[in-house]
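**Polypeptide and fold**
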Amino acid sequence: MERLSLEFIDRVAVLKFNHPEVMNAIGSRMLDDFFEALAELKKPANGARALLLTGEGRGFCAGANLQDEDRGERRGGAGDGLRTTYHPILLQLRDLEMPLVTAVNGAAAGVGMSFAMMGDMVCASKNAFFLQAFARIGLIPDGGATFLLPRMVGWGRAVELSMMADRLPAETAHEWGLVNRLYDDNEALMDGAMEIANRLANGPKSLALIRRAYWSTWQNSYEQQLDLEAQLQNQAGSSTDFAEGVAAFLEKRDARFRGE
């Protein structure tokens, strides 16, 4: 992979946007690499039980690379490429059977902000910022931003961020609930994000089911969500991790989960 790096550290897969010369803006090569990375991530032999997504250098991801060398070869409308590139990646991230931690180490702009918001735990350093940059070039937010952003920060704030296209500092994003954990600098960010990712990677199989339950709640009625909870609880209750969790509770010791 040229524009992404993937490293397995114990049970954590660390995936980095890796084109720091353009603040990790996403071009066609990076999108191709993303598909390859996700395929590798899912191989059981690699042993990954949590994914940490961050950026190389000073930025997390500056959005789409408007100077992408392959941009001129694409045909169709501005949104057509989303269906064949970004959307399959975002849906794979949504459906991951492991927790996802995002570590925002700098600019998270445009679709880069969308990727940042995909985290089950969103971590950021104080020098990071978020930017719905689309209106600056005459486009609308994409990458699922119009779905996630109002649910995370509220309707009024989401519309303001999208129409005014102003920077949202990490400290304000933390106050608004967009960021779960805030760190003083990038070194502390990576230490903290890895600590969270390791904790989740050593958690029970039910963490993947929790992800599925919360992603499903947006389209389900109350009755449908109750039924889904029952279905997922059956799966969790039949896992070896559940048996281990109960045994550890009764024996007053820490559980040793295996993700099974």
